[in-house]
């Protein structure tokens, strides 16, 4: 049932304004009540009361009686009884209906919810009430801090950080999902300029540089950029040895070709092998020198002389080779022995008397014996001439077999002998003596020359 309302309004200064407010408030109240009744099936009440409140301050009592009189003279069928004493300092409309009560309850609840949402409490230590910032000693946390869940996080102004973060002079990586520090893993970082880089983080979470073993392979990370090194050789040891990195960054092993030469990298340490004889991954054996390169030609190793083929790099055995005019015989183990015909010729003259100026089997002086034994020309007749046949070496106790031992100064030696390679030599010593064997420990040469 709808109640028909008739309003008789008249202009009376400030009272007109009060009446307009009151009527508007009453109308709004009735509209809300009508909506509530339609929604909740609540029957309208028989008695309704409209209360009008004046907004004036100093003349409240005077104006209230006027407003009351005016309101009573209006033909308003909403209420049967109007009590003027209900006028107060606020305009209030009250309707005795459950619908109006429900509307007020909903408004209060909504206001309370908004107020609660707008209120965020910050603790001395821990997360704030909406879990958007972490506090430590009353301040937003910064650095690597243990949160109340027992985990450590990297904070900046109370907010957990992810990705690569610098802390205490090094770099760490924090997972974008869990925000936890990442240990012993290879992770991608997307930088602000859009570039993508991958970095290795070790067992302590720190960014890795140098050699690092991960998932069964060895890698090398540049100490400056921290990036993985591919297709390059990097020195890691004080003696220059290092590792060769493949196209996927994995350290290579076995025989590998690099910059035009062959090297060998140990399967365990991954390091380059120097001065050793090693078996390749296909079964053949090769000699690697002091700089790690595969050896060819003559090479002295562990006290013996060997010869390695210049084409195949394999050790030769059971054959003869000639190097720089010197013949070598290679046994079944590949050990090379110089075939010194000159030495053998000189030894065959033992007992021949010393003859000054002699260079024939009838008699020899020291330089004449050398000239005859090695078939030297006339321009190498004297000791002064013979000392020019090669470089002067001064470790005379290591003089090889067939070397010429000189006694005296570099430019003017007074005596020459032929080394037998074991600290002994054959020579024609002096007038009145014969060709015989002498010993370095008793009569030591000054230097030697290898022919």
Report what the structure shows.
This protein is of the alpha+beta class. Among the domains are: 102 residues, no CATH class; 69 residues, left handed beta-beta-3-solenoid (Ribbon), CATH 2.10.270; 109 residues, endopeptidase domain like (from Nostoc punctiforme) (endopeptidase fold (from Nostoc punctiforme)). Helices cover 18% and strands 28% of the residues. Strands 29-28-27-26-30 form a five-stranded antiparallel β-sheet, with helices on one face. A three-stranded antiparallel β-sheet has the order 1-2-3, with no helix packed on it. Helix 1 crosses helix 3 and helix 4 crosses helix 5. The longest helix is centred in the first third of the chain and has 27 residues. The chain is rod-shaped and about 125 Å long. Belongs to the peptidase C40 family. One of its GO terms (biological process) is proteolysis. GO terms for molecular function: cysteine-type peptidase activity. Keywords: Hydrolase, Protease, Signal, Thiol protease. This is NlpC/P60 family protein.
């Amino acid at each position: 049932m709808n109640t028909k309302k008739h309003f008789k309004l008249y202009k009376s200064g400030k009272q007109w304004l009060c009446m307009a407010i009151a009527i508007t408030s009453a109308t709004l109240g009735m509209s809300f009540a009508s909506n509530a009744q339609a929604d909740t099936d609540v029957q309208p009440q028989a008695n309704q009361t409209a209360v009008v409140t004046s907004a004036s301050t100093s003349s409240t009592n005077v104006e209230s009686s006027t407003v009351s009189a005016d309101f009573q003279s209006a033909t308003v069928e909403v209420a049967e009884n109007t009590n003027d004493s209900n006028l107060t300092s606020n305009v209030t409309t009250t309707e005795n209906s459950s619908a109006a009560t429900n509307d007020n309850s909903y408004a209060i609840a909504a206001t309370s919810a908004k107020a609660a949402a707008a209120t965020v409490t910050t603790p001395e230590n821990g997360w704030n009430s909406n879990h958007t910032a972490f506090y430590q000693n009353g301040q937003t946390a910064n650095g690597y801090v243990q949160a109340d869940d027992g985990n450590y996080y990297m904070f900046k102004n109370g907010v957990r950080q992810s990705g690569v973060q610098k802390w205490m002079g090094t770099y760490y990586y924090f997972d974008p999902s869990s925000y936890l520090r990442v240990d012993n893993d290879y992770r991608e970082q997307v930088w602000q300029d859009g570039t993508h880089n991958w970095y290795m983080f070790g067992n302590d979470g720190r960014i890795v540089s140098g050699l690092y073993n991960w998932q069964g392979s060895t890698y090398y990370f540049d100490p400056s950029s921290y990036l993985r090194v591919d297709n390059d050789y990097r020195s890691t040891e004080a003696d220059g040895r290092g590792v060769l990195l493949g196209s996927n960054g994995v350290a290579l092993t076995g025989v590998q070709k690099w910059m035009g030469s062959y090297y060998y990298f140990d399967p365990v340490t991954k390091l380059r092998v120097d001065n050793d004889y090693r078996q390749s991954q296909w079964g053949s054996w090769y000699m690697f020198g002091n700089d790690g390169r595969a050896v060819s030609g003559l090479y002295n190793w562990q006290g013996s002389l060997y010869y390695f083929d210049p084409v195949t790099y394999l050790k030769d055995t059971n054959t003869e080779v000639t190097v720089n005019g010197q013949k070598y015989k290679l046994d079944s183990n590949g050990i090379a022995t110089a075939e010194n015909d000159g030495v053998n010729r000189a030894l065959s003259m033992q007992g021949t008397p010393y003859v000054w100026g002699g260079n024939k089997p009838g008699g020899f002086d020291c330089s004449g014996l050398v000239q005859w034994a090695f078939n030297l020309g006339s321009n190498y007749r004297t000791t002064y001439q013979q000392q020019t046949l090669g470089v002067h070496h001064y470790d005379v106790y290591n003089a090889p077999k067939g070397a010429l031992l000189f006694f005296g100064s570099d430019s003017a030696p007074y005596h020459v002998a032929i080394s037998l390679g074991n600290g002994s030599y054959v020579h024609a010593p002096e007038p009145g003596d014969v060709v015989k064997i002498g010993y370095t420990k008793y009569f030591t040469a000054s230097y030697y020359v290898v022919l």
